[in-house]
């Protein structure tokens, strides 16, 4: 059984760690902190240098490791779902008793309980993704609308050269690219939560496993009464950091049934409806605000918009004027 999930809203704010060039012993300490208890060894490990960048988005950890010497990374067993995506050079791995070579178009996966054995071939670089077991299995259960039994049987090797898996790998690389930007939106907890959910659901939709066929089969639409519960929750607290999985829990149905119910009954997605409601609340707030003491930024953040440019664009598309124009007219 997976570990119990933290309570809603308990995920820590996104955090990053950077090490430009460290010895393997320091690198081991970082890897032990953010990934798994791992040993670092090899004939050249004394001279090897590594660069490490890591970001944590709640139950999702994404790290970029660069190797300047040949090392071996080994753990007796993974304690979470782990994926390695080489970005340069090759990584040799031992999976299910056989040697596997991975390059930039391949991902290696390890499930909780699997032994981890990686030999990056210097010079090389890789993105390593850790997903807490409870998070991935709860995400799958939310999508399906029923509990899942046992560990998700991710394939040992995933082809990233095309299809949904290639799209998912681009999302991971986007997170990697944002690591160096201190003002990136990924540091906003609300954005981080949605990105984390997208990574988890995207992985589940991209790779084969025993629930995949069920996951991609069209779902029945949720009943109007359940959809009404979601509408009431959104109207009551539109500023709450809802996710589609959270709204599905309110409705008591799967994410897919919720989305199909919204499409059939309202002609939009749950998150689109949430944004429309937030825009309406922001519009009313700006219409009655005192521009001498209230700013557009404060109103945007009050109603759950983390990116002012996107808020202004969506606001103009809905109301035909900019937020600042509405605020000026309130004077």
Summarize the structure in words.
- GO terms for molecular function: DNA-binding transcription factor activity; sequence-specific DNA binding.
- Keywords: Activator, DNA-binding, Transcription, Transcription regulation.
- It holds the Pfam family HTH_18.
- This protein is α+β, with helices and mostly antiparallel strands.
- The chain has three domains: 173 residues, Sandwich (Jelly Rolls), CATH 2.60.120; 50 residues, no CATH class; 54 residues, Arc Repressor Mutant, subunit A.
- Strands 1, 2, 3, 4, 5, 6, 7, 8, 9 and 10 form a ten-stranded antiparallel beta sheet that branches.
- α3 runs antiparallel to α4 and α6 crosses α7.
- The longest helix is centred in the middle third of the chain and has 18 residues.
- The chain is globular and about 65 Å long.
Keywords:
about 325 residues, AraC_XylS_family_regulators, 10 strands, AraC family transcriptional regulator, Jelly Rolls, DNA-binding transcription factor activity, 12 helices, transcription regulation, activator, 10-stranded antiparallel sheet
